[in-house]
Amino acid sequence: MKDSILYPEEELKKINAAIKQYTTVFKTTKDPFQKEKIRKKLIELKKYRERLMLMFYVHDESKRKNSENQAEERSFIEEIFTKLESPDYTDDELNKFYMYIEFFNTEFIAILSERKMKLDFKYGMDRDSFHHKFLTLKKHMDDYIQETDRIKEGNYRGDAELDIKVRNLKLRRNLFVETNRFFKEILLFTTDLLEDLRSLGLKCLNGDDIITFELIEEKRYFEGYTVHEALQSLEKFSSEIIAFLNIPDFEA
Prior knowledge:
By secondary structure, the protein is mostly helical. It has two domains: about 10-60; about 75-245. The protein contains seven helices and no strands. Helix 5 packs antiparallel against helix 6 (about 160-195). The longest helix is centred in the last third of the chain and has 37 residues, at about 160-195. The termini are far apart.
């Protein structure tokens, strides 16, 4: 490994090949002594790979989202506003909320699939369950926005104004609490997988695979990312929207 400083990309290829080989043996061997020995070796290799990537590995320029001299990464909401058209609601909080949900719908749902992200059975079930949960969440968002537009247009009887506005505030609060709960589940799911990828990689089985899309799927945000990098982005996104919603724990 002494030449890794001069040739980090070649070293990474060797390390990834070794990890793949050791992982195969780990999954197939029935000898507990050998299994423990391989487990320790895998942890050692993955820690070395992580240090190597942090210190030397230069990502392809097409995957860079910020320049070398940029001190801090942009928040996801700043990134989203460059990619999606704002609905331009007068309520800035609703604008941002809508953009977060639409970005998750167009980008993250596309990678939360068996074809893009290969997981063990338990985590595969969790991954697939997020689709139904998100469809329900999105329907509630659409219902709330429809109700909000109706109020904005004054499409109600005057004597019902107070009741309608109170109901609308409850819908909003319930929607935000539901969204907070959903993304806390996503955050826990993602954090567990990232922790696994830092050790044995037995829950996420293709962390090093490059994400690609068919022409019919059009250009997507995560084109060229590894599954590992996409999970890191999902962790960041989930944390950011949870902070944005700012729901107290006793209400969540």
